[in-house]
Amino acid sequence: MREKKYKNAYPILKINAAGIMAGNTLKARTIAILGSREVGKSSLIIQFVENHFVESYHPSVETTFRKVIRYKGHEVEAEIIDTAGQVEHSILSFTHVVGIHGYILVYSVTSKQSFEMVKIIRNKILNYSGRESVPIVLVGNKMDLHQQRQLTFEEGKNLASHWQCAWTEATAKRNDNISMFI
Ligand SMILES: Nc1nc2c(ncn2[C@@H]2O[C@H](COP(=O)(O)OP(=O)(O)OP(=O)(O)O)[C@@H](O)[C@H]2O)c(=O)[nH]1
Ligand SMILES: [Mg+2]
């Protein structure tokens, strides 16, 4: 059931790794994770890199995490830029566009505002980069919070299909579906 539902997702590092298959040397890929404050960006990355969940909220100062992954026999060094959450007046700078190979855009299924924010962020990325498309995965985090849900599964799915990008819902707390997008 779940596999069928989430088939739309495709991990961003694998999308990128496909482009660097030549040679056996270690290659680095830089991914930025963006979204409103408190949607769970750091929590998702900490689960991915360190395998644990932090219950308390500590607003991020921008940090880079590193993890080496294997993809089709090649080692890929993933550099993940965990940004301080975007608020209306501080959305993105050029440092979030130059040298970035892909983006994870996170909203929380408990916050319509955060869903609007990923749309604004994507527009900014496209404007800054001057490209018509960039590798993006869209992630609806906090899917464990059923009672507080403000966004349906379909809303996320429809936005991703409109953008023609990969998408999944996930939960950093339960460590579910994180491998679907990174
Ligand atoms: N229930 C639940 N809580 C979560 C989940 N992911 C994160 N949280 C909580 O949400 C709060 C914010 O998480 P962070 O990971 O710090 O959010 P962030 O997007 O990095 O926030 P900024 O760094 O300020 O942009 C924390 O209290 C987390 O414990 C989740 O999947 N489910
Ligand atoms: Mg954070």
TrEMBL record:
<dbReference type="Pfam" id="PF00071">
    <property type="entry name" value="Ras"/>
</dbReference>
<dbReference type="GO" id="GO:0007165">
    <property type="term" value="P:signal transduction"/>
</dbReference>
<dbReference type="InterPro" id="IPR027417">
    <property type="entry name" value="P-loop_NTPase"/>
</dbReference>
<dbReference type="InterPro" id="IPR020849">
    <property type="entry name" value="Small_GTPase_Ras-type"/>
</dbReference>
<keyword id="KW-0472">Membrane</keyword>
<keyword id="KW-0378">Hydrolase</keyword>
<dbReference type="GO" id="GO:0003924">
    <property type="term" value="F:GTPase activity"/>
</dbReference>
<keyword id="KW-0547">Nucleotide-binding</keyword>
<dbReference type="GO" id="GO:0046872">
    <property type="term" value="F:metal ion binding"/>
</dbReference>
<keyword id="KW-0342">GTP-binding</keyword>
<protein>
    <submittedName>
        <fullName>Rheb GTPase Rhb1</fullName>
    </submittedName>
</protein>
<dbReference type="InterPro" id="IPR005225">
    <property type="entry name" value="Small_GTP-bd"/>
</dbReference>
<dbReference type="GO" id="GO:0016020">
    <property type="term" value="C:membrane"/>
</dbReference>
<comment type="similarity">
    <text>Belongs to the small GTPase superfamily. Rheb family.</text>
</comment>
<keyword id="KW-0636">Prenylation</keyword>
<dbReference type="GO" id="GO:0005525">
    <property type="term" value="F:GTP binding"/>
</dbReference>
<dbReference type="InterPro" id="IPR001806">
    <property type="entry name" value="Small_GTPase"/>
</dbReference>
<keyword id="KW-0460">Magnesium</keyword>
<keyword id="KW-0479">Metal-binding</keyword>
<keyword id="KW-0488">Methylation</keyword>
<keyword id="KW-0449">Lipoprotein</keyword>
<dbReference type="GO" id="GO:0012505">
    <property type="term" value="C:endomembrane system"/>
</dbReference>
